[in-house]
Structures are given as structure tokens and as C-alpha cells.
Write a structure and sequence with these properties.
2 domains, Rossmann fold, alpha/beta, globular, hydrolase activity, 22 strands, hydrolase, 7-stranded mixed beta sheet
């Protein structure tokens, strides 16, 4: 058996891990899009490193675009097998992949219109028709059910606590009478998350493919999230009379923000200013979460006893049309704008940042992970000038960050996730989905916990197991 790492290898996006059995059955774990990788992003997304037509099965951990975003291209290029995921993951993929196709088509059309030679040089990675065909190949598996995807392969999902529907993947592979258990963590969430249940324990594995995004960090803020939001909004909107711009992923982060702001209202502490969610996708994603209350933790279930809509509060408005979105930039009224994308690499939030970044009254608030090469990453790093829309902008607005809102577990969470494993029985642990320096530090922590055989795969590297 072989495992090859064709994405999220010494990087945090583009998740793709290919298991090849001795009988040449090929199981692809995730098929994510590379994001925020600078000029090489398009090149990385154009090359899989394997033939899609040769992949037998695909198992999807969750619906974030860096884990599912290239599925339609995989199908368009010849993959015809089944795509296994949890029910909420399929619901999210339906809206996220269609949105991704629309954005790519629009970007390609814009690039071609503005091409000086007048030549059609840009094409989307996939179209809406490709998304429709891809969705027809999805097959749903509930959490904690053993499902035979192949006479030699059994699949089980356990809750990873990262976003709605996120799962750790557990494969039991039988070859020549020998059972091998392979676990892929997907992305591991926080223990004590605002909304979701804790990541589940899982059976002993022989091989583990483990994410390591925050393998060198602790999400320890001095104040609870609600208090930090209240302080930032009060100071910016009520004292300085400015705007708070929050880049936030449409799935997960936006809903956590709304839940925290709703919590402030329930305590009569919510600052009295307008709140805008400027992302049509966020509205759809919020509805998906409302449709799956089974994912909520006990704390949320208690709140639901006194508040039947935990994502709605006074002053909140969802913005859908482009006209309404643009009007926010013409309005000087203090307000809070939550908009995607979370790394500020695309979407409407870039326009809001551009229009507010050079005014000292305003605050740009980061609420999660951002790759160093992304606009959000550069702002977090303290850069005083940033490049947007073919122009440089001075960073005069305050830049703040609430790291504890990350949907990724910190190193204590990741070690907790592995705590049910006997390190002596883990033959190899592969670290993926992390910056190389971070992975090296996390590997040292894991060795202190007794894991002896740890590998940090390079891009396209293959291992015999």
C-alpha cells in the first residue's frame, strides 16, 4: 500500500492525499483548492499529480474549499467514482461549489475583457455544469456508521468538531488477510467550541494523517470572545465613530460571530450600531446550520430554550445585492461589516478593506487563520502598506485579531485529539496541513508524547506503508 501527498504538504491548503492499494484501488482523501499561495496558486490548482480517471473512491472530510474546491475539476477531468461525506457536508458543498464556479467564471470573463491583446486566455477551473455533475456522485454516510465502500475497504466518520459536518476519516483496509487502519484527521476543531460538539475519540489506528495548522500555537486570549468583540466595537464605532470590518469565512466563522453577538444582546451588552453580513453565501450557510441542530453542543441547546434564533439580533441585516454592498462604502455611519473571504483574498470584503484601511477611525478585525501570503496574513503581520486592486494602500486603520476564534484546534487540542491512541501502536504519523516550521515544532511535541515515527511529507511525496 502507498500514500502520496498531493496537497496541504508543508502548506495549509489544497488538501489531497492518495492511498493506493496493492490491487491498484485508489482512494483520494479530499480534493481541495490551493488558496492564498501568491503567484503559484493557479499553477498548483491546474495540476493534480495523478490521473483523476484512475481514482476509484473519494472520501471528503468537510466542505471548506481548501478541502473540496477542486472536486468539480476532478470530475471534469475524468473521475467517475463516488464521493463519500456526511449529510451537512453535502448540503454545504452544494452552495460552496456552485459559488466557487460562479466566481471563477466571473473572474475569467473580467480577465478576458481586460486583456490588452483581446485574446481569450483565462478559463475557469470548472463550470456550474461540472458542479451539478459532481453533486450527483455524492453519497451520504452518517457519523459513527461502518460503511463498506469496497470489498477490501470499510469507512467510518467521527465528528471532528471543526465546522458543521466535518469528520475525521477512518479506513479499515484488508489486503492479503491483513487489516490496516488508517485515520485522516481532516481539520480538528476546538474543545469547548462556541457552537459545535467536541471532536470525538476514535479507535486505534496504525497510520495517522494529521493536520497541524496551529501546531505551535495556543489560542489563549485574555478576555472571552464576547467581551473582546464588545470592547472593539464600542471603541471603534461609539468612541471613534468608525467602522469595524471583519473578514470571515462564510461557513463557520460568520456563524460563530453572529452567535457571540447574539449572546451580547441576550446580556443587554450589544453596542447599538448597525450590523451587516455582506455575503449571500453566509446567509445560505447559516440556514444550513439551522437545518442541522444535531451538531450543536449542550451550551447552544440551553440557549435555544430561551432564544429560538441564535443567529439573529437587533440591528442585523444580511446584504445580498451588489448595489447594497457598494452602498455600505458610501455610508459614513459607524457600523460593523462581516464579509468574506476570511483571508481577504477575494470576495466583497476586499472592497470594504480598500475603502476603510487608510482611515484611523476604522478597525480591521481578524478572527481566524490566514496564510502569510494572503492579504489578511500581511495585515496580521503588521505590514504598513498592502497591495490591492493594482494599487498600494497605507494601513492606517487599527488591525486587531481574536485568535481564539479559530476553527482549528491549537497544539493542546491536537494532542488531546490523539490522546486516545497508544503511540507505540502507531506505525507512522504524517503531518499535513501546516507551515513547515510549525510542523517541525509540533513534531517535537508529539515525540514528547511518545510518537516515535513522524514524517512531514513534501509536495507529491509518496510513502510505502
Amino acid at each position: 500500500m502507498k500514500i502520496a501527498f498531493h496537497g496541504a504538504a508543508r502548506a495549509v491548503t489544497g488538501s489531497k492525499h492518495l492511498i493506493t492499494l496493492n490491487n491498484n484501488t485508489k482512494i483520494l482523501l479530499d480534493c481541495g483548492m490551493f488558496q492564498g499561495m501568491g503567484e503559484v496558486t493557479d499553477k498548483l490548482n491546474g495540476y493534480f499529480g495523478f490521473k483523476p480517471s484512475e481514482v476509484t473512491h473519494l472520501v471528503l472530510s468537510h466542505a471548506h474549499i481548501d478541502h473540496c474546491g477542486l472536486l468539480p475539476k476532478l470530475v471534469a477531468d475524468g473521475f467517475s467514482g463516488s464521493i463519500y461525506c456526511t449529510p451537512p457536508t453535502m448540503d454545504l458543498c452544494r452552495i460552496l461549489l456552485m459559488d466557487s464556479a460562479k466566481i471563477q467564471t466571473q473572474d475569467a470573463e473580467y480577465a478576458n475583457r481586460n486583456n490588452e491583446k483581446g485574446e481569450e486566455v483565462e478559463e475557469p477551473l470548472y463550470t456550474e455544469d461540472d458542479v451539478v455533475k459532481t453533486l450527483s456522485q455524492f453519497k451520504i454516510i452518517e457519523y459513527n456508521e461502518d460503511f463498506e465502500i469496497d470489498p477490501h475497504v470499510s469507512l467510518r466518520f467521527t465528528d471532528a468538531g471543526h465546522i458543521i459536518g466535518s469528520a475525521a476519516v477512518h479506513l479499515t483496509i484488508t489486503e492479503e488477510g491483513k487489516e490496516t487502519k488508517v485515520t485522516f484527521s481532516g481539520d480538528v476543531g476546538r474543545y469547548g467550541d462556541l457552537l459545535l460538539k467536541d471532536p470525538q475519540n476514535f479507535p486505534q489506528a496504525d497510520y495517522i494523517i494529521m493536520e497541524s495548522t496551529y501546531g505551535n500555537s495556543l489560542h489563549k486570549d485574555l478576555q472571552p470572545i464576547e467581551e473582546m468583540l464588545m470592547e472593539i466595537i464600542n471603541h471603534t464605532c461609539l468612541v471613534k465613530k468608525g467602522k469595524v470590518i471583519i473578514p470571515a469565512f462564510s461557513v463557520g466563522r460568520t456563524q460563530e460571530l453572529l452567535y457571540a453577538l447574539n449572546g451580547l444582546e441576550l446580556k443587554n451588552k450589544l453596542p447599538d450600531v448597525p450590523y451587516y453580513v455582506d455575503s449571500p453565501l453566509s446567509l445560505e450557510a447559516t440556514q444550513v446550520l439551522k437545518n442541522h441542530p444535531e451538531v450543536y453542543n449542550n451550551g447552544v441547546k440551553q440557549v435555544l430554550k430561551v432564544d429560538d434564533d441564535i443567529f439573529q439580533f437587533k440591528g442585523l441585516k444580511f446584504i445580498e445585492s451588489v448595489v447594497e454592498s457598494k452602498s455600505l462604502n458610501d455610508n459614513s455611519q459607524p457600523c460593523v461589516i462581516i464579509s468574506s473571504s476570511g483571508m481577504a483574498e477575494g470576495g466583497r470584503v476586499r472592497h470594504h478593506i480598500r475603502n476603510n484601511i487608510s482611515n484611523q477611525k476604522n478597525t480591521i478585525l481578524m478572527v481566524g487563520y490566514a496564510s502569510p501570503d494572503s492579504l489578511a496574513g500581511k495585515l496580521i503581520a503588521g505590514q504598513k502598506r498592502v497591495w490591492m486592486f493594482r494599487q498600494e494602500y497605507d494601513v492606517i486603520a487599527d488591525v486587531r485579531s481574536i485568535q481564539s476564534m479559530s476553527a482549528h484546534g491549537d497544539y493542546e487540542d491536537l494532542i488531546h485529539f490523539l490522546s486516545g491512541q497508544d503511540p507505540e501502536k502507531v506505525q507512522q504519523l504524517f503531518l499535513v496541513h501546516g507551515e513547515y516550521e510549525v510542523q517541525q515544532q509540533f513534531a517535537l511535541r508529539l515525540k514528547e508524547k511518545g510518537f516515535k515515527h513522524i514524517a512531514i511529507p513534501e509536495y507529491h511525496q509518496e510513502y510505502e506503508i
